[in-house]
Design brief:
Elements (H helix, E strand, L loop, with lengths): L8 E2 L10 H15 L8 H15 L8 H7 L14 H19 L6 E4 L8 E4 L6 H15 L3 E4 L3 E2 L7 H15 L6 E3 L3 H9 L4 E9 L3 E10 L4 E11 L5 H17 L4 H10 L9 H14 L2 H17 L4 H16 L8 H15 L4 H13 L3 H15 L6 H10 L3 H14 L8 H10 L3 H8 L9 H12 L3 H14 L3 H12 L3 H13 L6
Parallel strand pairs: 4-6, 4-7, 5-7
Antiparallel strand pairs: 1-3, 2-3, 7-8, 8-9
Helix pairs in contact: 1-2, 2-4, 6-8, 9-10, 10-11, 10-12, 11-12, 12-13, 12-14, 13-14, 14-15, 14-16, 15-16, 16-17, 16-18, 18-19, 19-20, 20-21, 20-23
Length: about 550
């Protein structure tokens, strides 16, 4: 399908042919931009509908955009679905139109391409917008360009259709688009989605990583194989296969789930790529660290929680906000570092909670679409005893995530400690299944939830999954739980370790416990367990 660019409107000339590459690039780039914007207030179902409408159009299947087809493929309705008696498609399409209108009013006024879905039709219209460029915009783009140029770039190539059926080209195209959307949530990396711009950039610089693969299909199964290569070494560094039995779920669901799994495996803060790049940069002089490398120092601390990693992260992030003040990520991660200082009672730091809030808000001001910024702000509100504000902030983060496993462990952590026991613990457990690099710190709120239910055996099981020898919370939960189970002798060693890490715990223990646990009856239960273990606190 070629695009008619003679006028502002871009219409398909022939709906049974494919887009040319220029038109495909414009549309898919705009789709990613809208889907990842905080101002696109669409539900998961409406986002699924939007992605289906666009993917069908760019693949030359816009003639199939009928109410019945959409109901079957997007909303999983049965074969006997009657669009005349059930208006679900028209209702959701109407809400999608509203979400698009709001996006272009709030955030998309200067986007080069406008996407509309006229009433009475599900066929999208693409409109070239005339975008004025001011001096201020040039400054913003230049500062962002400086940061992004020093960030790792990953190029996503279209997945090869090896099904033997040209009709399945849409699978590889749609999957590459889903991957681009998922990877764009990791805002410190540069995503090149096999566009004209990406191919031109390759002539100037080779993307550090290339993600590519194949699509296979037979009578019973669909398989997507995915591989990652590192241009620096020329080596294949990762690969995996993802398989679905036909009929187990829709193709769109399979694509989305697979894209999310790949993204979290590769680019989670403790995933394959950050770990690989940290090992390359960990011995670099402080003055030579890029903003992204400073972020990697924080990730290492977040993973190990060692005193050495804490000092490296603190030094690196403080250096980064001086040299890279336009990088929102370094601001809100420094905010989290100061939140940890306050929550864990580190000495030698003035007003850490105030600094945490200030830095997190600064990070949000620069990077309002980064879900991590909002969940860090929620964590700071929690420590500040503003539980209702914490819930609001984590709700904002969840809207930005659109069901992605990225940071879902941290979302569940804050939600559970805020008292959203059912949803918070469910999110943690789901994250543990989907993300092999989930933070073991999530076992703390799971432990708290077990105490709430007086399930002391379950609480002890959660402590067995913790290995955080540098945190006073580790011997604390061990000692308290063993005390509640009547095993005071086994608890003695953990009481001694707790006092080694926090000699003033008898006088400050209740305050420190209350910074994370906001429910008096649970705090009293923790204190009771410590008392039975032989440690009395004021």
């Amino acid at each position: 399908m070629r695009l008619n660019n003679n006028k502002n409107n871009i219409y398909p000339k022939n709906p049974k042919k494919n887009f040319d590459i220029q038109g495909y690039d414009k549309v898919t780039e705009q789709l990613v931009k809208i889907m990842t914007s905080t101002e696109f207030h669409a539900t998961a179902s409406q986002r699924k509908l939007f992605n289906f409408i666009i993917s069908q159009t760019v693949s030359g299947k816009s003639h199939e955009l009928k109410g019945y087809t959409i109901a079957r493929k997007v909303f999983n309705r049965r074969d006997d679905f009657d669009p005349n008696s059930n208006p679900i498609v028209s209702i959701q399409a109407g809400k999608l139109r509203q979400a698009l209108e709001r996006y272009y009013l709030m955030a998309g006024q200067k986007d080069p391409l406008r996407i509309e879905i006229p009433k009475g039709s599900y066929l999208p219209v693409f409109i070239n917008q005339i975008v004025p460029v001011t001096g201020l915009e040039k400054i913003d783009k230049d500062s962002d360009k400086i940061f992004m140029e020093k960030s790792p770039a990953v190029e996503i190539l279209s997945f090869n259709n090896l099904t033997g059926d040209l009709e399945n080209e849409i699978i590889g195209m749609g999957f590459a688009s889903d991957l681009a959307i998922e990877l764009s949530r990791y805002q410190e990396i540069k995503v090149l989605h096999a566009t004209k711009e990406a191919r031109q950039s390759v002539q100037k610089e080779i993307p550090r990583f290339t993600l590519y693969g194949n699509v296979y299909k037979n009578i019973t199964d669909v398989k997507i194989s995915c591989q990652l290569t590192d241009a620096k070494t020329g080596r294949h560094i990762w690969g995996d296969n993802y398989r679905m039995s036909i009929g187990a779920k829709t193709m769109l669901e399979f694509q989305e789930d697979t894209a999310q799994n790949i993204a979290v495996n590769l680019f989670d803060r403790h995933g394959i790529i950050p770990t690989r790049l940290f090992n390359e940069s960990k011995n670099k002089p402080l003055d030579s660290l890029t903003a992204y490398e400073a972020i990697l120092m924080f990730y290492e601390y977040d993973k190990t929680l060692t005193p050495e990693a804490f000092l490296n992260a603190m030094e690196s992030l403080n250096h980064a906000i001086i040299n890279h003040p336009d990088c929102g990520q370094v601001w809100f991660l420094l905010g989290q570092l100061y939140a940890n200082i306050y929550g864990l009672g580190f000495s030698g730091f003035d007003t850490p909670l105030e600094k945490a809030l200030k830095y997190a808000e600064k990070g949000i001001q620069i990077s309002p679409a980064d879900q991590r910024a909002w969940v860090i702000l929620a964590f700071i509100y929690l420590l500040s005893d503003h539980v209702s504000l914490a819930k609001e902030a984590v709700s904002r983060a969840l809207k930005l995530s659109s069901g992605s496993p990225l940071n879902a462990d941290f979302f569940g952590y804050v939600m559970t400690l805020s008292g959203d026991w059912e949803k918070g613990t469910a999110l943690i457990k789901k994250s543990m299944k989907r993300n092999p690099y989930y933070s073991p710190l999530v076992h703390y709120p799971l432990w708290v939830n077990c105490l709430r239910q007086k399930d002391y055996e379950g609480a002890y099981a959660e402590t067995m999954k913790l290995q955080m020898p540098y945190l006073f919370w580790y011997p604390l939960v061990k000692a308290s739980t063993l005390g509640l189970l009547g095993q005071s002798e086994k608890a003695e060693a953990y009481v001694n370790r707790l006092l080694e890490l926090k000699p003033d715990f008898p006088s400050k223990g209740r305050i420190l416990i209350g910074r994370y646990i906001k429910f008096k009856e649970i705090v009293d239960r923790v204190v009771k367990g410590l008392s039975k273990a032989g440690l009395n606190i004021d």
